[in-house]
Automatic annotation (TrEMBL):
CDD domains given in the database record: MPN_DUF2466 (cd08071)
Protein name: JAB domain-containing protein
Keywords from the named record: Hydrolase, Metal-binding, Metalloprotease, Protease, Zinc
Segments crossing the lipid bilayer: none
Family: Belongs to the UPF0758 family.
Annotated organism of origin: candidate division WOR-3 bacterium
UniProt GO BP: proteolysis
Gene Ontology molecular function terms on file: metal ion binding; metallopeptidase activity
Amino acid sequence: MKKSFTVLDLPKGERPRERLLRLGPEVLSSQEILSVILGRGTRGKSVMNIAQELLSKFGNLKAIAGASVEELCQIDGIGPAKACQIKAALELGKRVEGQPEDETKIEIKTTQDVLKVVRPRLKDKKREYFLLLLLDSRNQLIRPVDISIGSLDATVVHPREVFKEAISASAASVICVHNHPSGNPEPSEDDLNLTKRLVQAGKLLGIEVLDHIIIGWQGYYSLKSRNLM
């Protein structure tokens, strides 16, 4: 049987990890970056071959980032553990891209301020995500929090989870945000009912719900600006 080419067959200075240490990550190809994330291959299949198969199947890193764990596991040599490594590494890159140098000092004055914080976190999501922005008494961002991950067209959110995070952070107010993977940001009846429940709960607790913003690739919908809360 013909021996599979492995990273160890490369001169030491040309191996992806050594090149990263010597020259920095900027010089690495997408295949090399994926091979560093994966760490090692399997018996009979090198990590470089697995990385190349990923790129051949999905086309580019953005498509790989959008693939599910199940889809990644269709590549021979990738199991759930390696698929999770890929998903985590690429998600981290997306979050870094959209995070200001000092996220905790952002003052949230407008819907556009909210979108700058949440759009990178919701970009390319195929399921509904419900996020919460926790604000202090000066409307400065304490931190964004992931509250719930749902299905393609719904997410289950309970006021208890929302205000548990707000109370823990001593937040003075909150802004709710969730995405519609369909692309249409128009609120559903469930969205309107949930918003009403959150506003009522916030009044009882002394934590104001400033807005509920829905994001889709077609745009965004602010319930506050439409006088729906």
